Every structure is written in structure tokens, then in C-alpha cells.
């Protein structure tokens, strides 16, 4: 056959392949297309051994329909011309059969296997004959642009009847190249959303999603997950959701982010209904940081949530109504000191806890010593304080009296005194003045030794200058030899 026979089908193939894409490659329905290629006639037909030089051009058309994702049926027809013992003979072949695809129809690339049967006719001019045949093929198909599909196929046809040619079997090999375009089914619903592909504006809808009349997913709560797939269809608008359409809980506290008022809660923290850490004892320190989770209501706490007890009385600040209780004082439930004898010194630090009512006491709760000076009297003669003759040395009995003075001064710390030394008239004035001074200083020194502050005591010798009795009698002179305390 002259190669010019291929000009028309080849031009149509090129025109189809270069045309604009008008639709997505068909994923169902059928296809129509043209084929061109070459065939190798049987040597019983040509009378010559088969070689590559025996190849003859062929062209034709084909159509198919895919009734399952990997299955389709086809019909095709080819025309070619071969030299039969020096004479050109036209060969017409038509067949019908099935194709099995390696991937679902509509994928961009598949390998396919074809099988079927058909009819072939050979016309030499004077004579012609026709035979039934069976056919097997292997090839590949590629999505090109829009609805275009390129394909190639290697195929073999074998006759199964014996009309003409002395009954010799004929086997013909084909190498075919073709271009088809899709024809979608009017009722096919590839994504199974209930809307036919020809009306479906959203042909890739996920399985299970509810769609509108145009085949596009419905998302009632506008969370980006279609109804039907959305496990939480009532999500508030703007809420961040997971792949199932349910609100996200990024901090894993069991309260979703849309309701979580404390979204950064550390893992494992016990939270309330708002997602905020719980403060079980209401002390202002959340349980995840509270080292003392059972603090009584109202107690002040430190940064670790432990109660503060500033005065150490066992009653926490905030509950303690007497927060400055002295150390070791016994307190009641409110933190206030107990004072069993009512002397103003709390039990626990009261060394004399049974003091009679009305008695003035020291800070230790024991009764104060009697004051040295009675009301409106500023001078006191220390009866029983004596010195060795002509000396400033206290007698032992005198020290007993001075112990009483020291205790009184200790209990009445506000009292300051002058210690005055006095003599009788015997001896010179100078001698008596010096002796009285030394005796006054001896008394001062003893009181300081017993704990009286030095700045509270002064010593002054008066000699014989201030008698209080007649120096002419022994009784008078005894009275004049005295030590006086005078309030300053």
C-alpha cells in the first residue's frame, strides 16, 4: 500500500492532540479515537518470509466503554494493504473484546491487556475471502491534556476459520499508535456523591461527604470538614479543628481550645471546666504548684502555697487575729494569747501563772517588788545599811537590805536615784565629807553589781552637813550615820 494512505488519519491524530483541552480526561463512560501503525502480514498470505521489510502501514478507528474501574469493552476496525504474490490486496479487520487495566480508568497512566474476537477480509480484486479471528494485545495509555488519551498497543490476530487461501491459518501482528478523546457517561458518578459527573462541579468529593446540588461538599459549621465526615458538626465558627472536624485540645487538658480559657496548661495539670488549673484549697496557688494543697480557708500562704505563721503560735496568718503573739505564748483557736490569771502576761511565758487579781507584775508575769518611794515621797532612808567603823565597807547584813533595793529598781526601771552618804559630827568636816562620799559610792557599786544600770544611779557624799537628829546623843548620832535614796 502507498504510504500516502496515512496522510489523512495522521493529520486527524495531530489535530486532535494539539487542540485545546475541553474537559478533564474521562474517568468513566467511553472513548473514541483514531489509530495508525504498521502490520506484519502472514507469510502464507504474502508468499514471502516475514521480515521488517514486510511491514505495511495501517490505520483505523476504535471506541471503548469502561463499565468498571479496571474493565472496559472495545470495538475497533483497521484497514491496510499488502502485496499478495505481486498483487496489492486490501485487508479489512474488525474486532470486539475487553480491556483489563493495571490501574483504575481515569488515572494518568495505565498498562492494559486486551482480548477479543472479530473478522478479517482480504480483497485481491479478482477474488476475496473472509475469516473469523481471535486477538490478544498488550499496551499502555497516557492522559495527555484535557480529555485526550495517547495509547500504543502490540497486538496479534489469529484466524480460526479456513475460507480461502487453501485453508492456511493466518497470523497478523500489529504495532499501533492512537489518540482518543473521552465521552463521559451522562449518569456516571465517579465520586459517588449522588451527583452525576456531568453536573458535578466538585468531582473529587471525599467519600461520605454530604454535597449540595452542584456536587460540592456542604460544611454547615464552616470548619473546613464536610458534613457527613465531620464527627463534630456543631463546631463554633472559627474554631480550630482536627481532621475529623472536632475542636483541637492542644494542651491535652481535656478542654478543647474553643472553651479553654487557659490554653497553655502544663501536661498533667488538673483543670476546671474552663481549662484553667484548679486551686482546691482556694489559697491563690494552683494545685500543680501547691506544696500544701490542704491549706485552711483564709490563711495567707507563700509562693509554694504553704501557710505563713509569722508569730509561730501555730495559727496561720490571715486566720490569726493576734498576729504578733510573743514566742511560746499559749493561744486560743484565733491565735490570741491565753492569760489564765489575767495579769496581762500570756500563759506559756508567765512564770507566775496564778498571780492574784490586781497585782502589778513584771514582764515575766511575776509580781513586782514594792516601789522604793511612796506617793509624794521622794526620799528614803535605807534602814539597816551599815559600814565597818571609819570605813566604806558594807556589813553583810547591809547587803540583805540592798538586795531588796536592787530588785525594786529592777522591777521599776523608770526610777532613777541619788545615793546620799551622811555621817555624824564626830571628826573633821573634811574627813566626814570624804567618808560619806566613799560610802555612797560603795552602795552604788553594789547595786550596779546586782544588775542596776549605772546611768540610773549617782553617788553624793554630804558628810555631817545634813543631820536629822541631835549629834549630842548616841541615839542621834546613830540616826545621822545613814544612807539615803533620793528620786531624781
Let me know the largest β-sheet: 8 strands, antiparallel, barrel
- Helical region count? 5
State the distance separating the first and last CA atoms: 155 Å
| Shape estimate | rod-shaped
What is the helix/strand order?
Answer: HEHEEEEEEEEHEHEHE
Placed side by side, the strands forming the largest sheet appear as 1-2-3-4-5-6-7-8
- CATH fold topology of the largest domain: Porin
Oligomer: single chain
Q: Which descriptors would you attach to this protein?
A:
single chain; 488 residues; alpha+beta; Porin; 60s Ribosomal Protein L30, Chain: A; 3 domains; eight-stranded antiparallel barrel; four-stranded mixed sheet; 5 helices; 12 strands; 27% strand; rod-shaped
Q: How would you describe the overall organization of this protein?
A:
The protein is of the alpha+beta class and 488 residues long. It folds into 3 domains: 3-183, Beta Barrel (Porin), CATH 2.40.160.20; 314-366, no CATH class; 379-487, OmpA-like domain (60s Ribosomal Protein L30, Chain: A, 2-Layer Sandwich), CATH 3.30.1330.60. 12% of the residues lie in helices and 27% in strands. The protein has 5 helices and 12 strands. It has helices spanning 7-18, 43-46, 396-411, 429-449, 474-480; strands spanning 29-40, 56-68, 71-84, 87-101, 109-123, 128-143, 148-159, 171-183, 379-381, 417-422, 457-463, 482-487. The strands form 2 sheets. The protein has an 8-stranded antiparallel beta barrel. Strands 9-12-10-11 form a 4-stranded mixed sheet. Helix 4 (429-449) links the parallel strand 10 and strand 11. It starts with 6 loop residues before the first helix and ends with a strand. Mean pLDDT is 86; it is low at 1-27.
Amino acid at each position: 500500500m502507498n504510504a500516502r494512505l496515512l496522510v489523512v488519519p495522521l493529520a486527524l491524530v495531530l489535530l486532535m492532540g494539539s487542540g485545546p483541552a475541553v474537559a478533564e480526561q474521562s474517568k468513566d463512560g467511553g472513548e473514541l479515537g483514531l489509530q495508525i501503525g504498521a502490520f506484519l502480514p502472514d507469510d502464507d498470505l504474502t508468499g514471502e518470509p516475514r521480515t521488517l521489510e514486510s511491514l505495511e502501514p495501517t490505520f483505523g478507528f476504535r471506541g471503548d466503554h469502561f463499565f468498571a474501574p479496571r474493565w472496559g469493552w472495545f470495538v475497533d476496525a483497521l484497514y491496510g494493504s499488502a502485496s499478495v504474490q505481486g498483487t496489492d490486496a486490501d485487508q479489512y479487520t474488525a474486532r470486539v473484546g475487553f480491556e483489563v487495566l493495571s490501574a483504575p480508568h481515569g488515572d494518568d497512566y495505565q498498562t492494559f491487556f486486551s482480548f477479543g474476537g472479530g473478522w478479517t477480509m482480504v480483497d485481491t480484486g479478482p477474488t476475496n475471502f473472509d475469516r473469523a479471528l481471535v486477538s490478544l494485545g498488550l499496551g499502555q495509555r497516557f492522559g495527555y491534556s484535557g480529555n485526550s488519551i495517547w495509547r500504543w498497543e502490540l497486538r496479534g490476530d489469529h484466524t480460526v476459520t479456513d475460507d480461502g487461501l487453501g485453508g492456511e491459518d493466518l497470523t497478523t501482528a500489529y504495532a499501533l499508535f492512537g489518540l482518543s478523546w473521552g465521552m463521559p457517561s451522562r449518569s456516571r458518578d465517579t465520586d459517588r456523591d449522588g451527583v452525576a459527573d456531568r453536573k458535578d462541579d466538585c468531582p473529587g468529593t471525599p467519600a461520605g461527604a454530604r454535597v449540595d446540588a452542584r456536587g460540592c461538599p456542604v460544611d454547615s459549621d464552616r470548619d473546613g470538614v464536610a458534613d457527613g465526615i465531620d464527627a463534630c458538626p456543631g463546631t463554633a465558627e472559627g474554631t480550630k479543628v482536627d481532621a475529623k472536624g472536632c475542636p483541637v485540645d492542644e494542651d491535652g487538658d481535656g478542654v478543647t481550645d474553643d472553651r479553654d480559657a487557659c490554653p497553655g496548661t502544663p501536661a498533667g495539670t488538673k483543670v476546671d471546666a474552663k481549662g484553667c488549673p484548679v486551686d482546691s484549697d482556694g489559697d491563690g496557688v494552683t494545685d500543680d504548684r501547691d506544696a500544701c494543697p490542704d491549706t485552711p480557708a483564709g490563711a495567707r500562704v507563700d509562693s509554694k502555697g504553704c501557710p505563713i505563721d509569722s508569730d509561730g503560735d501555730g495559727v496561720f496568718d490571715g486566720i490569726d487575729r493576734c498576729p504578733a503573739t510573743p514566742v511560746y505564748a499559749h493561744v486560743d483557736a484565733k491565735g490570741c494569747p491565753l492569760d489564765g490569771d489575767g495579769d496581762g502576761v500570756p500563759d506559756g511565758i508567765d512564770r507566775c501563772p496564778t498571780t492574784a487579781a490586781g497585782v502589778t507584775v513584771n514582764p515575766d508575769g511575776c509580781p513586782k517588788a514594792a516601789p522604793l518611794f511612796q506617793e509624794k515621797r521622794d526620799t528614803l532612808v535605807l534602814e539597816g545599811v551599815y559600814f565597818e567603823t571609819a570605813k566604806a565597807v558594807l556589813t553583810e547584813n547591809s547587803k540583805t537590805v540592798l538586795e531588796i533595793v536592787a530588785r525594786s529598781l529592777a522591777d521599776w526601771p523608770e526610777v532613777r536615784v541619788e545615793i546620799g552618804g551622811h555621817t555624824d559630827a564626830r571628826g573633821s568636816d573634811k574627813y566626814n565629807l570624804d567618808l560619806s562620799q566613799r560610802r555612797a559610792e560603795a552602795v552604788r557599786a553594789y547595786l550596779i553589781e546586782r544588775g542596776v544600770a549605772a546611768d540610773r544611779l549617782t553617788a553624793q557624799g554630804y558628810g555631817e552637813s545634813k543631820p536629822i537628829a541631835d549629834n549630842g546623843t548616841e541615839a542621834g548620832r546613830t540616826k545621822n550615820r545613814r544612807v539615803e535614796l533620793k528620786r531624781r
